[in-house]
Amino acid sequence: MIKSNAFCLFLVMGIPLFINGIIADAFAEEAFKKVTLPEALELMRANHPRIQAAEASVRGSEAGLRGVQNLPLFARLSPDIKYRRQQSELGIEVTDAGLRQEIRDTSYGVTRAYYLVIYSQQQRELSEKVTKILQKNIKALELKLALKKTPEDEVALQKLKFGLVEAKDKFSLAVTGHERAKALLIEEVGGRKKIGVIEPLDVGFPSYQFVDLLTPEFIGDIVEKAADIREEVIKSSKASQILALEVAAQKSARFNPRFRTFASGSDLHYIPIGVQGRGENFAPEAITIEMPSTLVGKKSDRVARAQAFADRGAAVEESTRNLIRLEVRNAFQLLLETRNRFHELNKIAPELRKIIDELHDNPVKFLNHENAELFEKASRMLGSLNQASFVTMDNIADLERITSGLFSLGLTSPATITSDGKPVK
Q: Distance of alpha carbon 287 from its chain centroid, rounded?
C-alpha cells in the first residue's frame, strides 16, 4: 500500500491522475467478463487441471504400451509378453474412460456453479427489495404513530422492525453467498490465474417442459442403458478383462516360482463410484480391484491366486453396474420431486410479484396488517421459487452427468431431449 507522503510526492511530480482511472477500468473490465454456459464449459476443457491430469494419464498409458511394444528381442521372447501387450491396450481404454469421466464430472461442477451464481443473485435482489420495502413502510408507520398512537400499530411497528432485522441478515448472507458462488464458478472453470474473473451472462433459468416424458418405461430404459455405457462401467469391465488376462499370463510361466504381474509396471489406481453413507443419504460402499506386483509359488498356486483376483474384478464390475442403476433411479426421483414443486410455485409467481410490487408502491396499503402478512408470505414463497428453480437445474445437470448424456437437455452435453420434452431426432 502506498504511503501518504509518497503519494503526495507522485502528485507533486505531476503523474497524470487518469492512470488510476485506466487501472480501475482494467479491473472493472476483468470483473465484468460475462460468459455463457457453453463458453464456460469451453474454458473448462482447455484449462482445468483435473482434465489436464487425466489427459496426462492417457499419455502415460500410451507410453506404457509403446514400452511393451519396443522391448528388446530377448524380452519379447517371454511367454507372457502377448498378455502384457493386451493388458496395456486395455489400460489405455481405462485411462481414456477416466478422461471422459473427468470431463463429465467437471462439466457438471461448472454447470452447477454457473446456475448457483444466478440463483444467489436472484436471492440477493429479492432480499434487497424486501429490505427497502420494509424500511419504507416502517417510516410510514412511524409517521402514522406520530399523529395517532394505537396498540395495534405499535405492535405492527415492532413486527416490522423485527422483520427488517431478519431481512438485513438475509441480504447480508445473500451478498456473501453471491460472491462465494462467483469464486466457485471461477475455480470450477479452471482458476483465476488461467481464465481471469468471469460471471454468467444469463440472469435467469431456462424453461423446460419434460415431466410427461418421465414415465416408468422411459426411466427404466435409461437406467439399463446407463449401466452399460457409464465410464465407471467401462473402467471396471476393462479392469476385469485385465485381471482375467493375468490368469493366462501366470499359466504361461511354467517353471518360475516368482513371477511378476502387470501391477509391477502399472498403476492400479481405480476410481470407484459412490461412497458409503448413512441415514437419508445411504449408499452402498463401492469396491475396487486388487492385484499384488508379484505372485509367488508353483504355477497352480499362482494361477489360483490370480483367478481369485479375477473373480473379485468380476464382482467389482457387477457392483458398479448395480450402483449406477441405483444412482440413476434416485436422480430421476429427485428431479420429479423438485420439478413438481417448481411447477406449482411458478404458476403463482406472477401473483406473488404483483403483491410485492403493489406494496412497494403503496405504503398506505402495506399498513393494513393482513397485507403485511401477505407480503411476508409472498416474499418467502418467491425465495422458495428461486431455490426450486436452481435445484431443478442442478438435478437436470446431475442427470446428464449420471446418465453420461443419455438424458440431456444440452446443459453439459449435446441434447437428446428438446425443451418441450421430445426426443432429439
A: 24
Q: Do residues 406 and 388 lie in contact, with contact meaning Cβ atoms separated by under 8 Å? A: no
What secondary structure letter does DSSP report for 125? H
Select from 1.20.1600.10, 1.10.10.60, 3.30.930.10, 3.40.50.1440 the CATH code of 32-402.
Answer: 1.20.1600.10
Phi, psi of 368 (to 5 degrees): -70, 125
d(CA 236, CA 240): 6
Query: How many Cβ atoms from other residues are within 10 Å of residue 70's Cβ?
Result: 9
3 state DSSP class of 276: coil
356 CB-near residues (< 8 Å, 6+ apart): 129, 130, 133, 375, 378, 379, 382
Which three cell numbers, joined as nine digits, stand for 31? 470483473
Cβ-based neighbour number of residue 341 at 10 Å: 16
- Rounded to two decimals, the pTM is 0.83
- E strands, 195-347, are 198-200, 258-260, 294-296
- Distance between CA atoms of 425 and 414, rounded to whole angstroms? 12
Contact partners, residue 204, CB within 8 Å, separation at least 6: 118, 122
Which helix (H) or strand (E) is 33 found in, with range? strand 33-35
Q: Is 35 helix (H, G, I), strand (E, B) or coil?
A: strand
Q: Report H helices in 230-368.
A: 231-252, 299-347, 349-361, 363-366
Element (H, E) at 34: strand 33-35
What is the structure's pLDDT at 266? 59
* Cα(97)–Cα(190) distance, integer angstroms: 21
Per-10-residue mean pLDDT of the chain, 425 residues long, equals: 37 39 46 88 95 92 86 78 88 91 95 96 92 86 86 84 90 93 94 92 88 90 95 89 90 78 60 44 57 85 91 88 91 90 91 84 67 86 94 94 94 89 82
Question: From CA 55, how far away is CA 345, in angstroms rounded?
Answer: 44
- Domain spans, the chain: 32-402
Residue 21's Cβ-side half-sphere holds a number of Cα atoms within 13 Å equal to: 4
